[in-house]
Amino acid sequence: MEYRVALIGIMVENPDAVELLNKILHDYGSYIIGRMGIPYHKRNVNIISIAVDAPQNIISALSGKLGMLDGVTSKTVYSNITAEE
What we know:
The chain is α+β, with helices and mostly antiparallel strands. It has one domain (2-84): Alpha-Beta Plaits (2-Layer Sandwich). The protein has helices at 18-27, 56-67, and strands spanning 2-12, 32-40, 45-55, 72-84. The protein has a four-stranded antiparallel β-sheet with strand order 2-3-1-4, with helices on one face.
């Protein structure tokens, strides 16, 4: 299976979505390389970046599930680096 490295950018505007968001991230934890969260209190938004190394379909599923949460937006950037695992 071909793995890719990607970065998922997440904007959380609804604090009530955080618990479910964290559950989803926990479910995909084996693919997550690292996570950085920045609470931006001035604009009432949380900014999260997730670096992943996973098959394309897993990355798309994760980003899609996050983006379906109320008050959460996610976008994914893929590297051109691939590896067979």
